[in-house]
Design brief:
Number of helices: 13
Structural class: alpha/beta
Radius of gyration: 21 Å
Distance between the termini: 74 Å
Strand content: 5-15%
Largest sheet: 6 strands, mixed
Shape: globular
Order of helices and strands: HHEEEHHEHEHEEHEHHHHHH
Helix content: 40-55%
């Protein structure tokens, strides 16, 4: 219990409640995210009622009788943006048996174009833009400025919760959708939509392949400052996403999938991305060295 309290205190120091709607993303926010655990399977899902981007407000308890896939998203989050294709595939497979709901939370990577939220209308507009730009067919709800629902569900930045038909948390993926989520969906539906845990119950592993391959558009929505802050908070993140985006035709079948990647393919994906980043880094270094040599030669040849 003492360890849990100490972890909670550390998280609050890294990502303080009074600055939850932060202006700049920093590495401490990433560390806090790694420490958060989310709600455990078997917990009663906190009820809420939130405005929708395209209809009347939605109350979670009104959806009882059918499993709910509750996904937290951010307009400027690379994990959100990278996971759109996976969520759409899950919706195609399970949309008639499971109610999909997304909740727009705080700005993950605020910048000069889309910054920290100052009004509910500003947040609602980002929710509308997200639903339209990503062609989202399920309800997108908008959390309040205090991020009350996000906090009630553990404060996670990209959580995916599978809630059974009685309103009990059956599965928590702390880093969004993953192959473990699909296993949990299959398990829960095989049991008639009730029971916890479903599948492995909790998946805390960072699933970043989709964000690397298809996520850069998220922080780019924030603007240059958002991309700069991302590099400060997650050094090398921009290069990874640039390389991943360039190699998307090759990497998409591995990164944007709802089923587990076989070990050999996972290793090949890792080696390929690391190799591509190394090659890009060497190319940039050579270009800089060439430019420096050229300037030096021009200086030597100039008349004194």
């Amino acid at each position: 219990m003492r360890d849990t309290e100490q972890t909670a205190e550390l998280i609050d120091r890294l990502d303080p409640s009074e600055d939850f709607n932060f202006q700049h993303f920093r590495m401490r926010h990433m560390v806090a995210e790694l420490l958060r655990t989310g709600l455990p399977p078997g917990s009663e899902a906190p009820d809420f009622k939130l405005p929708s981007t395209d209809g009347p407000p939605v109350q979670l308890s009104d959806l009882r009788g059918q499993p709910v896939l509750l996904h937290f998203v951010s307009y400027t989050c690379p994990v959100t943006r990278g996971g759109v294709a996976t969520m759409q595939e899950l919706y195609r497979l399970y949309g008639e048996q499971v109610q999909f709901v997304e909740v727009l939370m705080r700005q993950a990577h605020p910048g000069e174009r889309h910054g920290a939220y100052l009004s509910s209308e500003q947040k609602l507009q980002d929710g509308r833009d997200y639903a339209r730009e990503e062609s989202v067919p399920w309800p997108v709800l908008v959390d309040d400025l205090a991020c009350s629902v996000q906090r009630a569900y553990g404060g996670l930045a990209a959580a995916a919760y599978l809630i059974d038909s009685r309103g009990v948390v059956a599965f928590c993926g702390t880093w969004g959708q993953s192959p473990a989520l699909r296993d949990a969906l299959d398990d829960l539906l095989a049991r008639g939509g009730t029971g916890a845990p479903a599948g492995k119950g909790t998946d805390r592993r960072p699933h970043l392949a989709a964000a690397i391959v298809a996520g850069r558009r998220g922080p780019a929505r924030g603007g240059r400052r958002a991309l700069f802050d991302l590099e400060l908070g997650f050094p090398g993140g921009n290069i990874l996403m640039l390389v991943g985006g360039a190699l998307r035709p090759l990497l998409a079948p591995l990164a944007l999938r709802t089923t587990p990647i076989p070990p050999k393919e996972r290793a090949a994906l890792l080696v390929g991305v690391v190799g591509a980043c190394a090659a890009l880094g060497l190319s940039v270094r050579r270009i800089r060295r060439y430019g420096s040599t050229k300037r030096s030669t021009a200086s030597d040849l100039s008349p004194s």
